[in-house]
Write a structure and sequence with these properties.
The complex is a heterodimer of chains A (77) and B (178). By secondary structure, chain A is mainly alpha-helical. Chain A is built from 2 helices and no strands. With 178 residues, chain B is α+β, with helices and mostly antiparallel strands.
């Protein structure tokens, strides 16, 4: 079985550095609003079970997409 | 069971609703247009901007598409959350309008039945008539702001429910009797 190789983001040009900075700023903004939305939903939602279910479902999508996005950033050559 | 913060133990909820599902559907359709942008870019980009789909440029495009996709998912989550948190409640003591206008702004307007001066309902537009949703406006006697329950299902029934709570002594329009 081949070992899983985790690539790191090592910008080798100004363009890569710029997109890396923009990427992580966007990721911070998205993460902030994602958790803020989950907090508001869990705090003010009438049904805690529904709120928890919706938050968990979103979290699965969010983590999957974030992992995919970070992977695509690290794959920049 | 308490369904909103501040509900008295002796207070019975007669009616609780959100905006009509068609309003949420309209917002999701609008969201879907942004999803279509992604598909359109993939389809037409290959034809009109082929340089973006080969070599190193493709890697950059993939990163940008991933960021866009994350914003899209966040947008959908926020649309559904804000719809879910906008609640209109009629109890046997008062009318509440809980408006989550943004993530960090929630307005709670309430009026008791003794301060109500008039109630009116309206159904407008093709979809409103077809799917029976519209607006109920509750006017108050004093300086308090009126409560407007927008795009709720069955507005005429809600209006009648409020009139029923006001009692037989409250002057009703002729067509609202019973």
């Amino acid at each position: 079985m081949n070992p899983i190789v985790i690539q790191n983001f090592n910008p080798s040009s100004g363009g890569q550095l710029l997109i890396g900075v923009v990427f992580y700023i966007a990721l911070i903004i998205i993460t902030f609003f994602s958790f803020a939305t989950m907090y508001v939903l869990l705090k003010n939602g009438r049904s805690k079970i529904f709120s928890l279910f919706a938050s968990m479902l979103y979290l699965v999508f969010f983590i999957s997409l974030a992992a995919q996005a970070i992977n695509s950033l690290n794959a920049l050559k | 069971m308490k369904i909103f913060f501040g509900q008295d133990t002796s207070e019975n909820v007669l009616f609780a609703t959100r905006e009509h599902w068609f309003i949420l559907f309209g917002k999701i359709v609008a969201w879907f247009l942004f999803v279509l942008v992604l598909f359109a870019f993939d389809h037409y980009g290959r034809i009109y901007l082929p340089a973006l789909f080969e070599g190193t440029a493709l890697d950059y495009v993939t990163v940008i598409k991933n960021i866009y996709l994350m914003f899209l998912m966040l947008g959908l989550f926020m649309v559904i959350t804000l719809h879910y948190l906008n609640v209109h409640v009629v109890t046997d003591k008062r009318i509440l309008d809980i408006d989550q206008t943004g993530l960090f702004s929630q307005t709670l307007a309430e009026i008791t039945f003794d301060s109500i001066e008039d109630v009116s309902s309206s159904v407008n537009g093709f979809f409103g008539t077809l799917l029976n949703y519209g607006t109920v406006e509750v006017q108050t006697a004093g300086e308090k702001e009126n409560i407007v329950l927008e795009n709720i299902p069955g507005p005429h029934a809600v209006e009648k429910l409020i009139f029923d709570q006001l009692g037989p002594g409250f002057p009703r329009p002729n067509n609202k009797q019973n």
